[in-house]
Specification:
alpha+beta; paralog of FGE (formylglycine-generating enzyme); 3-stranded antiparallel sheet; 6 helices
């Protein structure tokens, strides 16, 4: 544009000069000058037009170049955007695929863990059932038949001066046949029936202890539901008759001997703890631990002896305390005598309280 203005200025100046000259030069010379000026003006006009055309062409070319560059830049930007989008899409797809694979692998691990846990649980339950089976059988096989008969219950002569008032007066008791446990109920037996450990002790062959009379009733209920065995606690009369040796009795002070060391774990030899059942000498009927180790709950409410003659006595019809017999690992020899008796609230639990089972002969 600046070139065009300059050319127009030059042309105008030249025309003005020729105009001045034309007015000064007369005749043919003036005409010739006029023609020359016209020619020069025409050439100048042509040059100016050429310049204008070239400038316009340059402008259009520049615009075309700019448009081409803009188009190229736009195309490049679009291509870059597409490439970025394609990469982002590819990355997202790869991330999804990895997440899916990780989730699948995690689920597989969880299922395998669940299956392994289930297998382990099944194996444990199978092993527990296998271990429990002989324990269940022991309830039946460890019962001893006690043939009925008549005996003197209470403070009999072999007891000497060790009797307490509660053991008097003596009474003549007649009993029918019955079964009683060869051993006190063990921890292993308690566990299979109740599913827990009452005392926290480990060995399954130890006598169960720290159980209340009421808890024993629940144990017997569950046991009978499982075995239909009609188990129960012995009556006080049944317990003492069996402890004395039944109709095989030799009239011992303790259950099976006059020497307490042979038949009982008590305070002087127990080390202040229970011992596995059946480790001391049995009595005349083959029954163990009716002296010492743990006291044993019997079924009767506590009451004073009435004396006289009784047949299959069941004890008082009501009361506040239940009777225990037998002495324990923590008590002196006087408590391990066959006629010794004491009582506790049926809801109480002590570390020296256990029990044995009985069952009617029919």
């Amino acid at each position: 544009m600046r070139c065009f203005k300059r050319a127009a200025f030059v042309i105008a100046t030249m025309i003005l000069m020729f105009f001045i000259a034309y007015n000064r030069i007369p005749g043919a010379a003036a005409q010739s000058a006029s023609d020359e000026a016209a020619r020069i003006a025409a050439e100048a006009a042509a040059k100016a037009k050429a310049l204008r055309d070239k400038a316009e062409a340059d402008r259009k070319e520049a615009e075309a170049d700019a448009a081409a560059k803009a188009a190229k830049d736009k195309a490049d930007a679009a291509a870059a955007t597409k490439a970025a989008k394609d990469k982002a899409d590819a990355d997202a797809k790869a991330a999804r695929e990895k997440a899916d694979a990780d989730a699948k692998a995690a689920a597989e691990r969880i299922w395998k863990s669940v299956e392994a846990d289930a297998d382990a649980k099944a194996a444990k339950e199978k092993a527990a059932a296998a271990a429990a089976e002989p324990v269940w059988k022991s309830f039946n096989t460890d019962m001893v038949l006690v043939q009925g008969g008549t005996f003197t219950m209470g403070c009999t002569p072999e007891q000497g001066n060790d009797c307490y008032r509660e053991e008097t007066p003596t009474q003549e008791v007649t009993l029918n046949d019955f079964y009683i446990g060869k051993f006190t109920v063990t921890l292993a037996q308690w566990r299979v029936v109740m599913g827990n450990n009452s005392s926290g002790l480990i060995s399954g062959n130890l006598p169960v202890e720290e159980v209340s009379w009421n808890e024993v009733q629940e144990f017997i209920k569950r046991l009978n539901e499982r075995t239909n065995g009609n188990y129960r606690l012995p009556t006080e009369a049944e317990w003492e008759y069996a402890a004395r040796g039944g109709n095989q009795s030799q009239g011992y002070k303790y259950s099976g001997s006059n020497n307490i060391e042979e038949v009982a774990w008590y305070e002087s030899n127990s080390g202040k703890k229970t011992h596995p059942v059946g480790t001391k000498k049995a009595n005349e009927l083959g029954i163990h631990d009716m002296s010492g180790n743990v006291y044993e709950w019997v079924n009767d409410w506590y009451g004073e002896y009435s004396g006289g003659r009784l047949t299959n006595p069941q004890g008082p019809s009501s009361g506040s305390h239940r009777v225990i017999h037998g002495g324990s690992y923590s008590t002196p020899d006087r408590s391990a005598r066959v006629s010794y008796r004491y009582r506790y609230d049926p809801g109480i639990r002590y570390g020296f309280l256990g029990f044995r089972l009985a069952r009617s002969s029919n």
